[in-house]
Design goal:
By secondary structure, the protein is of the alpha/beta class. It contains 13 helices and 14 strands. Helix 3 runs parallel beside helix 4, helix 4 runs parallel beside helix 5 and helix 12 crosses helix 13.
């Protein structure tokens, strides 16, 4: 409260990117303009024949005035399949698994003694062109191994980085700078490699919004929601099939993602490999809460995940009909319209537009699986 006025001043968050500098290896700042940010997206580079066919529509860009970013990409990826970096055979098999995107894992899935070999295998796998877009999960910055992981992975064929166990903005800054240096080394445009931070602790959840707005590379947030995973261990809660202990953390992460102007919250892996019912239940819960994708640890999980996170043809048809009805009403000077027994306004229109955009993006990835 200011003295003498009797009125409190509400602090307003600056727009995403205002006064923000890209790390620039040459020592010069590329200062992001102040004011509301325009929709930003790094260059899309995909090399699989399936994705190249749809490069124009692979990532639909929607705009929103509800977040500091002002507008952002809606990534159509519904599934991200983990593949251990130390297993060249599994890296090759992942390319034909049908996953929307892959995560080559250099962290938990690799023993310390196998890291050098895993980096070589990942570099070789990234050089192949017959695969979906690839993220790499390096080791955490504090381990000292992240930089060697990035040396092996960053190049024109890398789509993004999944940063594990992120808990501070400083960790994001270190990754940002490391990526900028390696992009310059490979003559890549600054910001070519996107980042998906993975929240795996209560401390990370506490600052999830700050993490989301810390870099223009961030395209979403991922949550470690797996049974007996890192977050559950930190929470010291009790796992149940209904997921009561994870309800608040899951919801909180979606809200922080949305508040940051991002539209791609990603749910963690399901540990059940032989129980489709459990996976279906987890996918349904995540979808209801607002998640747009889910990580997978086995190709057999992909069909269930794709069904859960793909707009149904019925949803798409209803959305198109709603938009048509609203457009007719708007042309008559009305801001709301009765459609199928419900009152429809601008909020319904935005949701319908996003459903159609997501369906178009999924279709661009290879159709409804």
């Amino acid at each position: 409260m200011r003295r003498g006025t009797g009125r409190s001043r509400r602090r307003r968050d600056p727009p995403r990117g205002a006064g923000r500098s890209w790390p620039c290896p040459s020592g010069r700042d590329r200062r992001v303009r102040s004011g509301p940010c325009r929709a930003w997206a790094p260059p899309l580079r995909v090399s699989s024949r399936r994705a190249v066919r749809s490069v124009v529509t692979l990532c639909k860009i929607l705009t929103t005035d509800n977040g500091p970013r002002g507008g952002t990409k809606v990534l159509p990826f519904r599934s991200l399949l983990f593949s251990p970096g130390s297993d060249a055979r599994k890296l090759a098999r992942a390319a034909t698994s049908g996953a929307d995107a892959l995560i080559y894992d250099l962290e938990d899935a690799v023993a310390p003694s196998a890291r050098a070999q895993a980096r070589r295998a990942v570099a070789e796998a990234l050089a192949r062109t017959d695969r979906p877009p690839v993220f790499v999960r390096p080791n955490h910055p504090d381990t000292g191994e992240m930089y060697a992981d990035l040396d092996a992975a960053v190049g024109p064929h890398l789509y993004g980085v999944v940063l594990p166990k992120v808990e501070t903005v400083d960790e994001m800054r270190r990754l940002d700078e490391a990526l900028a240096e390696r992009e310059a080394r490979h003559d890549m445009a600054l910001g070519s490699v996107v980042v998906l931070p993975l929240v795996e602790s209560c401390r990370g959840l506490r600052v999830a919004y700050d993490i989301a707005v810390s870099s223009l590379r961030v395209v979403g947030l991922a949550f470690s929601s797996g049974e007996d995973g890192d977050f559950m261990a930190d929470l010291q809660g009790e796992w149940t099939p209904a997921g009561e202990a994870m309800m608040y953390p899951r919801s909180r992460l979606v809200c922080d993602t949305r508040a940051a102007g991002l539209w791609w919250p990603v749910d963690g892996v399901c540990m059940s490999l032989d129980d489709d019912a459990t996976l279906e239940r987890e996918c349904a819960l995540a979808r209801v809460l607002g998640y747009q994708a889910k990580m997978a640890i086995h190709p057999a999980q992909l069909p269930v995940i794709h069904r859960a996170f793909t707009p149904s043809p019925e949803d798409v048809t209803r959305s198109r009909e709603l938009l048509a009805a609203y457009a007719r009403a708007e042309s008559d000077g009305s801001g709301a319209v009765r459609h199928e027994g419900r009152m429809v306004d601008r909020a319904n229109v935005l949701r319908a537009e996003r459903i159609i955009a997501r369906a178009d993006g999924v279709a661009a990835l290879g159709g409804y699986r």
